[in-house]
Amino acid sequence: MATVEKKNWNCEAFSKMLNLKFLEFDNMMISSSPRILPNSLRSIKWSRYPSKFLPSGFQPNFLISLEMPNSKLVRLWDGRKDLPYLKKMSLLASKKLTTTPDFSGMRNLEVLDFQFWDNLVEIHPSIADLKCLKWLLFGFCPKLKKIPEFLGQMKNLSSLCLFGTSIEKLSLSIGRLVGLSSLSLLYCKNLVDLLSEICNLKFLTALGVGGCPKIDKLPENVGEMECLEMLRLDGTSIRQLPHSVVGLKKLNSLSLGGCESRLPSRLLCCLPLSYERKAFELASLGGLFSLRKLDLSNYGLCEEDLPSDIGCLSSLEELKLSGNNFVSLPASIGCLSKLTLFWVNECQRLQQLPDLSKLISLVDIDITSCTSLKMLPHLSSNCSLVDNKRGYRQFNCANFFVLLCSGSLSLSLSPPYTFSFLFFSFLYSFFSLSLVSSTFPSVYDLPENWFKPKNQKIGPKIASSAWSDFPIFFFKNRTKPDWTG
Asked: In the chain, what percentage of residues exceed pLDDT 70?
């Protein structure tokens, strides 16, 4: 974050700058407040504007851009102000403003950014007459409960952000925003319904209603939104998608994870395998040929909840199934030829994975805390169990030790990754394999070639008590030694 400097600036100097066109104060706190600003200004960018009001005689008829983030303004001006050339108004994080200005004299506005207004409670109805408006941003305005009616004038509006507001319902006129391409309703915790009129937005490409726990269904005709590419439904109470969703031919990202009403994962892992819970119903996904990202994390899904034809998603690149109740997964997952990321971490009842050896594009698989896993997956030579961003991946798999000793786990993956153990004082700089909080059987004689590079001696054999609940991490190699075995 840039350092904010305090400056002693004599704002009386503005009275002599009669032809000033561009004014910018960035990351600077001015001690005095201006009594006058030049009417000749075309662009104002003043971060942390120090006064509660703009100068009373300020009438910048040719102003094009007004940006005053983090200002101390409590009101812009009273009544109508004619600013016919103004295209952008950004008052980001102006926390003391409670209402927007009258927009009737700003007919050419294209961008309005009023995000992070902690106390905004009212939007002037004249906003509906802004025919040129393209971006309307009210994200993170927690006291905003109502938005004006859209009167059909705002046909050029392409992005509407109501992220984190307190709105309870959408206006029926939302369907008149025919040019809208992005609608964010994320974390509108009081929003109770998605109107069917929203499906009139034929050019909408991104719809986010994640984090809206009172939303429990999508409109039945959601499949009519033919241009939709991204749909976020995570953190809602939606239990079933309408069958028309397969009509979303351009959909490439679908997020359904994180439903709040599911049972806690710690409880789920203790339930008997005969326990049946229909947490969520998915129709066949085979029609979503453009889908690239699918997130079904933390939905309490069982294996019968996942469509067997999931392998028909021929464009799928990322599949996240973390935190669910699967015991097994559909074999067709092994047919997702473009899959690059596959996460099933925290699936504590998962006992086996499908054959992944043909997924040559797969480079990231996460099986962290799959404590019931009985066999590790067969992977292509391109895939690594190492988290490349952190350099390691921590596991919690109670059966890892048994897998190693039974030979089910191969100790050689594709270069540059090689497996070694961390134990006692043998703290090599190239640790890779990990066993975390595992409980091991009685006593095992571990082969020496699991622990040492060539020509290096190793300590005594290890008793099981030394390994019990011993934290070991999975590290990316820093060096590449020549291992035996």
From this structure: 71
DSSP 111-171: EEE-TT-TT--B--GGGGG-TT--EEE-TT-TT----PPP-S--TT--EEE-TT----S--
425: CB partners within 8 A, 6+ apart: 459
pLDDT digits (tens, 9 = 90+) for 161-176: 999 999 999 988 999 9
Q: Are residues 341 and 411 in the same domain?
A: no
| Total of domains in the chain | 2
In a domain, 367, yes or no: yes
How crowded is residue 274: how many other Cβ atoms within 10 Å of its Cβ? 5
- Give the SS3 label for residue 29: strand
Same domain, 349 and 273: yes
**Given the structure tokens 């590079």, which residue do they identify?**
453
CA–centroid distance for 392 within its chain: 22
Residue 353 lies in a domain: yes
Using DSSP's 3-state secondary structure scheme, residue 266 falls into helix
Domain of residue 475, residue span: 406-485
- pLDDT tens per residue across span 401-417: 444 444 444 333 333 33
pLDDT digits (tens, 9 = 90+) for 465-476: 333 333 333 333
Q: Which of 349, 383, 417 is the last residue of a domain?
A: 383
CA distance 208 to 113: 19
Give the pair of three-digit tokens for residue 30: 């001015």
What amino acid occupies position 436?
A: V
Give me the amino acid identity at 473.
F
Between CA 180 and CA 183 the distance in angstroms is 7
Tokens of 268: 């789920």
SS3 content of the chain, % helix, strand, coil (to 5): 10, 15, 75
Asked whether residue 378 falls in the same domain as residue 317, the answer is yes
Residue 282 near residue 307 (C-beta atoms within 8 A):
yes
Q: In Å, how far from its chain's centre is CA 326?
A: 24
